[in-house]
Amino acid sequence: MTISTPLTALLQIKHPILLAPMAGAAGGRLAAAVSHAGGLGIVGGGYGETDWLTRELDAAGNARIGVGFITWSMAQNPRLLDLALERKPAAIMLSFGDIAPHVEAIKRAGALLICQIQGVTEAKDVVVKGADIVVAQGTEAGGHGATRATFPLVPAAVDVAGDIPVAAAGGIADGRGLAAALMLGAAGVLMGTRFLASTESLVSLKAKRRLIDSNGESTVRTSVFDIVRGRTWPAPYTGRVIRNEFLESWSGREADLVRDREQAARAYAEGQRRDDQGTAVLHAGEALDLIGDIPPAREIVERVVHDAERLLGGASDRYRLGQ
User: 161-200 burial, b if ≥16 CB within 10 A, otherwise e?
Assistant: First the structure.
């Protein structure tokens, strides 16, 4: 059994699984591994470090991948999009901010435009402005997001998107999540946290072990790490992270952190340098309960697809309809 959807047809991929472009974690090796496994790997362009992006695009080799950006970071470094488009990616993914200034260049280069949204109003906006694929991200997701939950957001986004394929994101880490997303009307899924705990992910082994030792209740949405890193995110966006000592020391004291940021930033930077998991931020989603190992990305894709196929193929044996 093969799960073919409008998403697989449009992207010319075998499986309806996309890699979330996680800043600092979704590098070239991970993106290539997901693509070679039959999904679409997307390198995380993050906050606009040109050298990092160049290195990771090189690391992807000749794999057919996409590149993702935090949209407003491109205003600070206009060269980023040109750098990505020169590599002839299958797609460019834009998250947060206005996509309008970038649509023409992306389409002219022959790349598909994937747009991540956190609400129905945003979905309507990107559909009108030229999105080829919409990613509906629920608040369960790791990293930055807003307040809508995945389960009700996905079908609402599907209704808005019409013929444009929608991928579900947020709280999805196994075949049950893929099967559920398809039942909600999505044409596939975008997964981050599950691939964060893979051999090819760029986060440290200590961080990966912390992922599998944590659960969904270990996570919280916060602005503490954005403040200490000097990265301003407007409301309603916050980042879902795994709780640690640094977060607990500043949670509820954000105004104090703004005032004392210089000193706190030095302590934070030193903790990051030492890979101190009590200090460094680790973005992760509520699906941590479903993650118990650190396999290669190919194995993750294969497991998710196999389990989803089994569930979808056996649905008639699991449920009985009657009067």
Answer: beebbbbbbbbbbbbebbbbbbebbbbbbbbbbbbbbbbb
Sign of the CA dihedral with 103 first, then 105, 106, and 109 last: positive
Range of the domain at 252: 215-273
Task: Give me the residues of the chain with pLDDT under 50, please.
Answer: none
Tell me, rounded to whole angstroms, the distance of Cα 120 from its chain centroid: 18
79 is a domain residue: yes
Q: Measuring CA to CA, which residue among 294, 296, 295 is closest to residue 207?
A: 294
Kindly state the tokens that stand for 197: 């705990």
For the chain, the first-to-last Cα distance in angstroms comes to: 31
Secondary structure element (H or E) that encloses residue 310, with its range:
helix 297-313
Answer yes or no: is 288 within a domain.
Answer: no
Query: Encoding tokens for residue 161?
Result: 């998107």
Rounded Cα gap, residues 43 and 26, in angstroms: 5
Residue 95: its H or E element: strand 91-95
Report residue 315 as tokens. 């649905």
Q: Contact, 111 vs 85, CB < 8 A?
A: yes
The residues facing 44 across adjacent strands are: 68
Distance CA 129, CA 104 (A): 10
Q: Are residues 123 and 10 in the same domain?
A: yes
pLDDT at 127: 98
Using only C-alpha atoms, what is the Rg of the chain? 19
Residue 43 CB neighbour total at 10 angstroms: 32
> How many angstroms separate the CA atoms of 161 and 117, rounded?
11
- Give the span between the Cα atoms of 95 and 106, in whole angstroms: 14
What is the model's pTM? 0.95
292-319: string of b/e by CB count within 10 Å (b at 16+)?
Answer: eebeebbebbeebbebbbebbeeeeeee
- pLDDT given at position 15: 98
Residue 73 and residue 219 share a domain? no
